[in-house]
Amino acid sequence: MKDVAAHVGTSIKSVSRVLNGEEGVSAATSERILQAMAELGFRRNDLARGLRQSDRTRTIGLALPQAGTRFHDSLVHGIDEIAREQGSLVLTASSGTAARERETLTALCSRRVDGLIVVPSGEDHGFLRPEQQAGVPVVFVDRPPHGIAADAVLTDHAEGAREATTHLIRQGHRGIGLIGDDERIFSVAERVSGHRDALRAGNLPYEPESTRLGARTAEEAMQACRELLGSSRPPTALFTLNNQCTIGAVRALRALGLSRKVALVGFDDFETAELIDPPVTVISHDVEEIGRTAARLMFERMAGHSPAPARTTLPTKLITRGSGEIPGPQAAAGSGPR
């Protein structure tokens, strides 16, 4: 500011007024100050300014296991929408492993972020307790925290899975194959639980041989689907627990010529679901709203609201498009509900 003032031949106070949009400087002088700032490459130090004004940096830290997925992109969009309204920026960093998560969150805290939103990778978040005690609010998304009391915004995974499986049973299916990621993941365990609840309600047994878990990629899900459909008692319907598993199942069904013979319901919507033949029936959840809810909780705590940490669970929705409505044997025989 001193250099700009000297360059223009005015006072530092005048430069400060122009920077902050205050009155008291003529239009001609304001124009000269702005031109000098451009020539000298002046950039306002918002970090230092924020610390001087309110000890806030107006930045939010967001830790994600990975970037580039539809889920995480939608989540970032929802969080950023609320952050913009609050005049804050979102700093996003990846944290694919427990060790990397700890490094990432520690680094974000060292940059004095005003709050943290975490999609957990690790199983122990007790190291964040000192940050909470220092006044940094922490909100977890998609999975609850471990070793720390904090807000969590979750999807009703179990209810969504119950609805998906019940829907397939109503189409006349009794043999339903299940394909998903590692059951140690919170969301996967909840979805498996909901699936089993629906089978129990329909007086159907849970058969481990019809389940393939641990499929982390579309290729692994495709192989799991081939194994199920090549077994001595192949399922007439499939329930896949995430996008990658759904895509793998679609590829396997197409390769085997079974796309219109084996029903399919996937958990999580995806952009090309309507373009596939047949279009894919899915359990959808509003990921942007999850992000908005998490961000609102954070800013409320920053504003001084201090209720006990709680879980907020958002609903899912069944979207019928065709693949999940392929009738099963019981429906064809006229002995099962539709």
Structure summarized in a few sentences:
By secondary structure, the protein is of the alpha/beta class.
What does the model show?
With about 350 residues, the chain is an alpha/beta fold. It contains 13 helices and twelve strands. The strands form two sheets. The protein has a six-stranded parallel sheet, sandwiched between helices. A six-stranded mixed sheet has the order 7-6-8-9-10-12, with helices on both faces. Strand 8, helix 11 (about 245-255) and strand 9 form a beta-alpha-beta unit. The longest helix has 16 residues, at about 70-85. The chain is elongated, with a radius of gyration of 26 Å. Mean pLDDT is about 90; it is low at about 45-55.
Features:
single chain; about 350 residues; alpha/beta; six-stranded parallel beta sheet; six-stranded mixed beta sheet; 13 helices
